[in-house]
Amino acid sequence: MNPTFIDGSIIAQYFYLGLLLLIIASFVAGYIDAIAGGAGLILIPSFLMVGLPPQLALGQEKLVSTIGTIAAIKNFMKSSAIIWQIVPVGIISALLGAYLGAEAILILPTHVINYIIFALLPLGLLATLFKGKLLAKNPSGTEIKKSALAVFITCLIVGFYDGFFGPGTGSIFIIALFIINKLPLLQASATSKIFNFASNIGAFVSFLIAGKMAFLIGIPMIIANLLGNHFGSLHAIHSNGEIIKKVLVITVGLLMLSLAYKALS
Question: Where found in the cell (predicted)?
């Protein structure tokens, strides 16, 4: 019986189609992340859907979102919304926590990571969706709490989660800064970008050392994510991003259904 050969042009078509979908997902993820947090909720399922191994999917998400966040930080800096007094200690602890989290996930077997992703994606989505309700129940006071210990512990724990998994980290940072440090909502969102960037760097280093990144396909995705973060952060400065939450629910829901179908089949 003769073996069946697949035309190389068909393989190329599938490759370029998959890359195009990842570029679109990167733009959408950047836009959503700048407003509501949750880039990983879009990126990680997208990477898994096109066939990337789970550890490479987590590493690739760090590659794309780490650089993409720079555009949002630039716009927030222009708006003077970042509370710089608490930034140094938060950066150090977020870096440390994320590095430790990434090291932890890298030692786990692939099938275990798949289960972790399926289990934690809904949790990351819930953190993003119910952020508004949590913030509304705890209106910000006039005095900002700048406790170094509180910032260090918060960023260490959230940073570890970011390195270990990631989706929803931006929302968790915003909630923590709003409730624990009493930052106004815009300032909490803007300052969280600095901490999220630091935690991304911590995880980025760990995944880079382990060789869990694909730089060639990552370049166009990074550009798309930068553009998404740019336009999303401009939107965040002038609105509360409620429509983004609705889009996030629909998008993540469809992605998770697709992943579940792929896993079962």
Answer: Cell membrane
Residue 1 falls within a domain, yes or no? no
Q: Which residue has the tokens 């900002």?
A: 144
Q: How many CB atoms lie within 10 A of CB 43?
A: 31
The string of pLDDT tens digits covering residues 220-250 is 999 999 999 888 878 777 765 555 556 556 6
Q: Residues 3-10: contacts with CB within 8 Å, 24+ apart?
A: none
Residue 126: half-sphere exposure toward Cβ, Cα within 13 Å = 5
Is residue 184 helix, strand or coil?
coil
| Cα angle 86-87-89, degrees, rounded to a multiple of 5 | 80
Query: Residue 231 carries which DSSP code?
Result: H
Q: Is the pLDDT of residue 55 over 80?
A: yes
Token representation of residue 116: 């972790």
Name the domain count of the chain: 1
Q: What is the pLDDT of residues 163-209, one digit of tens each?
A: 998 877 877 888 888 877 777 777 887 888 899 889 999 999 999 99
Residue 61's domain comprises 9-264
Length of the chain: 265
Enumerate residues 6+ apart whose C-beta is below 8 A from 228. 26, 27, 28, 29, 30, 31, 32, 33, 34, 68
Say how far apart CA 55 and CA 102 lie, in whole Å. Answer: 10
Residue 117 lies in a domain: yes
